[in-house]
TrEMBL record:
Pfam families: ABC_tran (PF00005)
Biased composition (Basic and acidic residues): 1-13
Annotated region (Disordered), positions in chain: 1-36
One annotated GO molecular function: ATP hydrolysis activity
Gene source species: Blastococcus xanthinilyticus
Domain ABC transporter: 39-264
Cited CDD domains: ABC_BcrA_bacitracin_resist
InterPro entries named among the record's database cross-references: AAA+_ATPase, ABC_transporter-like_ATP-bd, ABC_transporter-like_CS, P-loop_NTPase
Keywords, sorted A to Z: ATP-binding, Nucleotide-binding, Transport
Family: Belongs to the ABC transporter superfamily.
Name recorded for this polypeptide: ABC-2 type transport system ATP-binding protein
Length: 348
């Protein structure tokens, strides 16, 4: 699902948006932090006739961090987010917020805000759209002005949302998601269609929501480059299954087998001994060591502890985009050969 600029009326999916009015992040009143909420996905599974969209998917989204939910088109991201938000029933598995499913939350709109698609009444002003939403959700109408200010749309608040640019619509959708001051924000492809200035604004805004205010932020994208500078952690899916979960640092360093680290030292043998003593696999070639399955930080720390001088320490992988491509190549979606569930099972 995408921010598609449509003006369909929706009730359950808070919408977004942008003006070139404000570039400073202002997400929330003051610097108060929200109650931390952990999102846990476990065994989530969903099929549509002969397509298994999500298959036994499990991962955790931590408070105070921005987690990128990445995968190629058709990998199952939207289907997963819909199940997380209680908009679609899973065939199996659960998605919980501090242990409760969306349906079990006492005040779901105060716990979770979502930006799934742009959807506004085109004749309504941005401010009115937010006020209508406040009334429907039982929030004080003053919240409309609070969130307009947060996303830098105060000056455009009285203009018809139908005349907003895509960036402004995305800011308006984000403002809608923030009305309930939720601890969790789920954003589906929020940078879609934004210009570089809008992307920079969004990046600062999202990071502020997580890092300064302790919110749990899950941002989906099919492009790693789009979220690379925004997210702290990544969850990569392919064909509905978990491909990789970890910090950006782990992904960059090619840890857990995605790549190797090159180390140069005037004492290669002593360094190799120190690393091997910790069960780390090392290949020595002159003054160069090639190390698999560990981050540059881990190797640097081990060398420091052993008192070994280093002349070079770097990831040998050829870049994030290449790692991402390698991890997800050919994993757009399952194409089960038959609608027969037994035959589908055989394709797992
Ligand atoms: N309502 C539906 N009916 C049938 N098939 C569906 C439905 N929704 C999703 N699918 C299929 O499930 C698979 C996963 O789709 P999904 O939209 O979740 O992927 P995605 O990762 O969000 O992709 P994109 O980045 O293109 O939005 C795809 O093969 C898609 O065609």
């Amino acid at each position: 699902m995408r921010l598609d600029g449509s003006s369909r009326a929706r009730t359950r999916e808070p919408a977004i948006s942008s003006a070139r009015t404000s570039s400073a992040p202002r997400p929330g009143a003051g610097t108060q932090r929200v109650e931390p909420v952990q999102v846990e996905i476990s065994g989530l599974t969903k099929s549509f006739r002969n397509v298994r969209a999500v298959a036994d998917l499990g991962f955790t989204v931590e408070p105070g961090t921005v987690t990128g939910f990445l995968g190629p088109n058709g990998a199952g991201k939207t289907t997963t987010l819909r199940m997380v938000l209680g908009l679609m029933q899973p065939d199996a598995g659960t998605a919980t917020f501090n242990g409760r499913t969306y349906a079990e939350l006492a005040e779901p709109l105060r716990t979770v805000g979502a930006v799934l698609e742009t959807a506004f009444h085109p004749a309504r002003s941005g401010r009115n759209h937010l006020r209508v939403y406040c009334r429907a959700a039982g929030f004080p109408v003053e919240r409309a002005d609070d969130v307009l200010a947060q996303v830098g749309l105060t000056d455009a608040g009285n203009r018809r949302a139908g005349g907003y640019s895509l960036g402004m619509r995305q800011r308006l959708a984000l403002a809608t998601a923030l009305l309930g001051d939720p601890a969790v924000l789920v954003l589906d492809e929020p940078a879609n269609g934004l210009d570089p200035e809008g992307i920079q604004w969004l990046r600062g805004f999202i990071r502020h929501l997580a890092h300064e205010q302790g919110r749990t932020v899950l941002v989906s994208s099919h492009l790693l480059s789009e979220v690379e500078q925004t997210v702290d952690r990544v969850v990569i899916v392919g064909a509905g299954q978990l491909v990789r979960e970890g910090s950006m640092e782990q992904l960059r360093s090619g840890a857990d087998g995605a790549g190797t680290v090159l180390v140069r030292s005037p004492e290669p043998v002593r360094l190799a001994d120190a690393l091997q003593a910790d069960g780390i696999q090392v290949a020595v070639d002159g003054d160069a060591l090639t190390v698999s399955g560990r981050t540059t930080a881990e190797i640097g720390a081990r060398a420091f502890a052993a008192g070994v001088e280093l002349h070079e320490l770097r990831s040998k992988t050829s870049g994030l985009e290449e790692i991402y491509f390698q991890l997800t190549a050919g994993r757009g979606q399952f194409a089960a050969p038959s609608a027969d569930p037994v035959a589908q099972e055989a394709t797992r």
